[in-house]
């Protein structure tokens, strides 16, 4: 006895045969695989540095540690790249879910717009915070500042 599965007749096919131009669904699929591999390297590098290579391990992580790390351009770019890829990777995944399950065009447009707006706001704010963070603000009480601020 064999069973035949009916064609679900999707409302929004990923790509029809007669369509021309770039295949954005394929680009999104490739981006998810590539960004996932890069994110694994970035996240495990981040964890290894913070937890294994830093003397004191997790107990050494405090405001001073983070401030000192974010004062170095290498770690600023490492963290920003990790932030950008994580947000774009997650947003692309949410876009895929919306495309699969939301079939009302207006609601779908609103959901995709909300995802894009949230991603843009998070990327802008995260980047701004990473590059403008100053652990040694001028005029602050020296007793409240990390040890490395005394050398300034």
Automatic annotation (TrEMBL):
The chain crosses the membrane at residues 27-49, 75-98, 110-133. CDD domains: SQR_TypeA_SdhD_like (cd03500). It comes from the Bacteria. It holds the Pfam family Sdh_cyt. Gene3D superfamilies: Fumarate reductase/succinate dehydrogenase, transmembrane subunit. Keywords: Heme, Iron, Membrane, Metal-binding, Transmembrane, Transmembrane helix. It is found in: Membrane. The keyword Lyase does not apply. InterPro entries: SQR/QFR_C/D, SuccDH_FuR_B_TM-su. Its main location: membrane. This is Succinate dehydrogenase.
């Amino acid at each position: 006895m064999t069973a035949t599965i009916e064609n679900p007749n999707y409302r929004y096919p990923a790509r029809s045969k007669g369509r021309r131009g770039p295949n954005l669904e394929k680009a999104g699929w490739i981006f998810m695989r590539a960004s996932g591999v890069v994110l694994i390297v970035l996240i495990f590098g981040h964890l290894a540095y913070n937890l294994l290579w830093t003397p004191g391990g997790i107990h050494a992580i405090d405001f001073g540690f983070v401030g000192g790390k974010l004062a170095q351009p290498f770690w600023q770019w490492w963290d920003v790249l990790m932030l950008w890829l994580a947000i774009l990777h997650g947003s692309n995944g949410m876009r895929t879910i919306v495309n699969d399950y939301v079939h009302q065009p207006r609601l779908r447009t609103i959901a995709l717009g909300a995802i894009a707006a949230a991603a843009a706001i998070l990327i802008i704010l995260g980047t701004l915070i990473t590059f403008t963070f100053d652990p040694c603000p001028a005029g602050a009480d020296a007793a409240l500042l990390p040890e490395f601020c005394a050398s300034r």
